[in-house]
Amino acid sequence: MAKRYYWLKLKADWFSDKRIKKLRSIAGGDTHTIIYLKMMLLSLKDEGKLYFEGVEDNFASEIALALDEDAENVKLTLAFLQRHGLIEIGDDDEYQLTEVPTIIGSETASAMRVREHRERKKQSDTEGRLLQCNTNETACNNLKQICSVEGEKEIERDKEIEKEGEGENGTPAHAAYGRFNNVLLSDAEIGGLKLELPDKWEYYIDRLSLHIASSGKQYNNHAATIYKWAQEDTGKTAPKKGIPDYSYSEEDSL
């Protein structure tokens, strides 16, 4: 399975939120704020969920162990977060950090390498050997063979790096889309959706994104799921403008 990186997308005014300002204002507030941020980072792969596994006597001590923080500080932080609706306790010793699902960013390692390579290549296009040859005709004639060989090597390197953006069996790399960045689509799939669903492709992506985030269900192919929903919606009453229909049936789940 391709390695995936996750990150928090904090808003520019995150520290201006009254709850965060209140957290920082209490005794040891900066420490509690750091603990909260570390908890959010710890929960990224599970979309904001943390679990009590019974390694310690209680959840606070177990999280303190995972974060290398003082247990009493973690206990006070948890009490504040729960009091202000920033964490909710569910069934089976599950704890949900309520902010996290809306501020997650993710990207596969191969997609990151391809993106970074393209950015470097774009920047160096005006500085490469081939461009230098073009700006000096005499020098280009003298170095024509060398430039040609170097150009072929560069093309081969580009092809190898582009292949890193593909999964096993040459499948295209997928990027994350949707409100919760959990709908995985390749460039070709996005292009197909725009072509076949010009007025609704964004609606169906957000609909699937919310469905996956709220139900925890997974799909083998997100593009195929969107096409299936679109076909099922044909002939039915279209959703009212501005009020997407996020309903689904259990048979949709794979």
Q: Could you give the count of β-strands?
A: 7
Q: How much helical structure, as a percent, in the residues?
A: 40-55%
Mind telling me the C-alpha Rg? Answer: 25 Å
Q: Give, in order, the helices and strands.
A: EHHEHHEEEHHHHEEHHH
Order of strands in the sheet with most strands: 2-4-3
Q: How much strand content do the residues show?
A: 5-15%
Shape: globular
How far the N terminus sits from the C terminus, by CA atoms, comes to: 19 Å
Average pLDDT metric: 77
Residue stretches low in confidence (pLDDT < 50, at least 5 long) are 250-254
Number of helices: 11
Give me the secondary-structure category.
Answer: mainly alpha
Major β-sheet profile: 3 strands, antiparallel
Structure in a nutshell:
The protein is mainly alpha-helical and 254 residues long. It is built from eleven helices and seven strands. Helices cover 52% and strands 10% of the residues.
Describe the fold and architecture:
With 254 residues, this protein is mostly helical. Helix content is 52%, strand content 10%. It has helices spanning 18-25, 29-42, 59-67, 71-83, 109-124, 129-135, 137-142, 144-164, 187-196, 201-215, 222-233; strands at residues 4-8, 49-51, 87-89, 94-97, 104-108, 175-177, 183-185. The strands form 3 sheets. Strands 2-4-3 form a 3-stranded antiparallel sheet. Strand 6 and strand 7 form a beta hairpin. Helix 1 (18-25) crosses helix 2. It is globular and about 55 Å long. The relative contact order is 0.08.
